[in-house]
């Protein structure tokens, strides 16, 4: 099975712009979560989507949003970019069932805001 | 609130030595999952192990072993006979999965360097 894929891998944006990141989960995985990784704050949960619905959200401002499509692919959007949004954005997918399953991560999108 | 503490920021050992990475967690829930992930320089988080709160059996997988002790809220990870390829940042994480909340709370990570 192919792993989680994320596009683009690298991105440079200017303050004030907006950006959209994409994530394709492992086939059969219906849950997609997003995390932000920075040197200062570490790994922080952004949100989780399942069946095109946001199930959980972390403590991030409304500039961070996401969505999930019927094929489970997900996108996250950051509007009005700030310098502090520079980070590695990781997407993770997992199976959903009566038990809990581990999350498998993609290679990430490294966003640099200048 | 959940919290995961990895007190060791960086560890360096000579190849073939054993090394233990510490993880201490806090949660009010009686049902939860613990994880270890490896992050090599490429950036991708690689899943290593998942353990639920009802299973305190230690686990061994090749050179890797995990020691889960609920009494001390610890989930430590030992690499035996370390190799250069083990050099990476290792993260311990916690989720309160049984609430349908699959959010992972990560520790700050331990950077492990294996010296040839």
Topology (elements, then pairings):
The complex is a heterodimer of chains A (114) and B (116).
Chain A: E1 5-7, E2 10-13, E3 19-24, E4 31-38, E5 42-50, E6 53-57, E7 64-68, E8 74-78, E9 87-94, E10 104-105, E11 109-113
Parallel strand pairs in A: 2-11
Antiparallel strand pairs in A: 1-3, 3-8, 4-5, 4-9, 5-6, 7-8, 9-10, 9-11
Chain B: E1 3-5, E2 10-14, E3 19-21, E4 24-26, E5 33-39, E6 46-52, E7 59-61, E8 64-69, E9 74-79, E10 88-95, E11 105-106, E12 110-115
Parallel strand pairs in B: 2-12
Antiparallel strand pairs in B: 1-4, 3-9, 5-6, 5-10, 7-8, 8-9, 10-11, 10-12
Account of the protein in words:
The complex is a heterodimer of chains A (114) and B (116). Chain A is mainly beta and 114 residues long. The mean pLDDT of chain A is 94. In chain A, strands 2, 4, 5, 6, 9, 10 and 11 form a 7-stranded mixed β-sheet that branches. Chain A contains no helices and 11 strands. With 116 residues, chain B is mainly β. Chain B is built from no helices and 12 strands. Chain B has strands at 3-5, 10-14, 19-21, 24-26, 33-39, 46-52, 59-61, 64-69, 74-79, 88-95, 105-106, 110-115. In chain B, a hairpin with a 4-residue loop joins strand 8 and strand 9. Chain B is globular. Chain B starts with a strand and ends with a strand. The model of chain B has no long low-confidence stretch (mean pLDDT 92).
Relative helix content of chain A: under 10%
Instruction: Give the tally of β-strands of chain B.
Output: 12
User: What are the secondary-structure elements of chain B, in order, as H or E?
Assistant: EEEEEEEEEEEE
Outline type of chain A: globular
| Fraction of residues in β-strands of chain A | over 45%
Judged by helices, strands and strand pairing, the structural class of chain B is mainly beta
Please tag this protein with its features.
heterodimer; A: 114 residues; mainly beta; seven-stranded mixed β-sheet; four-stranded antiparallel β-sheet; 11 strands; 0% helix; B: 116 residues; six-stranded mixed β-sheet; 51% strand; globular
